Here is the input.
Amino acid sequence: MAAAKDCPAPVDINHADVAQLRCLHGIGEKRAAAIVAFREAHGPFPGPASLAAVVGPKMAQALRERVVVTPISRGALPNRP
Here is the structure.
């Protein structure tokens, strides 16, 4: 897990990298990478509850107090066909 000084509170799931996502209780290397991959494939998360698509509804509910969602500017989105 990343050092506490490197952990944002709360964690922005639309901007966090793998190391920042690992600051969340129950999120290890594989889940953090899955969150980033899902975000890259499907675009930004519309809200904290949408994290359930990656970690399941129980985990998403448990993390709800520790995550935030801020918009990603259109220029920051990857080009998709």
Notes: The longest helix spans residues 29-42. The first strand starts at residue 11 and ends at 12. The chain has a mean pLDDT of 87.
